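Handout for the seminar on molecular recognition.
Each group receives one record of this type.
Step one: identify the two inputs.
Step two: read the structure output and locate the region that could contact pyridoxal-5'-phosphate.
Step three: write two sentences on what you found, then compare them with the reference statements printed after the record.
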Amino acid sequence: MISDLRANATRIRDRVTEAAERADRDPASVTIVAVSKTFPREDVNAAYDAGFRVFGENRVQEIREKYALPFPADLHIHMIGSLQTNKIGQLLPFIDVVETVDRLSLVEALQHQLERHHQQLEVMLEVNVSGEAQKAGVPSEDAGELLRAVIDAPNLVPVGFMTMAPFGADEATLRYVFRGLRNLRDRLQEETGMPLPALSMGMSNDFEIAIEEGATHVRIGRALFGERL
Ligand SMILES: *Cc1c(COP(=O)(O)O)cnc(C)c1O
């Protein structure tokens, strides 16, 4: 319901502001990525009307259907799901950022398609900071090599990093993971001389901790749109 969405939006913005202030950060330095996966276009439109401009989606087919009708030029879509190389061509017309670059074959396939379409694309590297076997993302120790491949790809613009914390982790583990991503970023930024400002970390359950640890993007679904069916 749209009235719920407006109330949720206000509450989330207040919590973002308070978390940023606790960390002596400017609340405006945190972008809320409204994770609208599984929710219909009407909910995206309602969130847009409530002031959200960045939306997170994780399935190519769903993106093509949901955004088939025209949308405002300042509505930006971030791909936050795992991406198969054979779907890239279908995805490119819709998205502004891929947050989930996790392997060399994806870098190569993105570069190939972007070149064909004469397009530049901002990307984040998804890193498996926690080292959980079933988690998506490049292992921390391989992130430098992957980053260099992105830097060498002329149509890809690296902007930073993304991670997912282990589900249901306690606060100490969450801080360890989020701080780990920030430290990795600091090191790779120093080594490559490439500005990598974006740290996409934190979801409905843990975004305040992520902001305290330096998140520039928090990906919030349920706390904004309600439970997914
Ligand atoms: C679904 C999803 C989110 C949002 O999770 P919520 O718990 O609904 O806030 C964030 N990031 C990724 C990668 C997701 O797939």
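Reference statements: The first strand starts at residue 31 and ends at 35. The CA atoms of residues 59 and 90 lie 11 Å apart.
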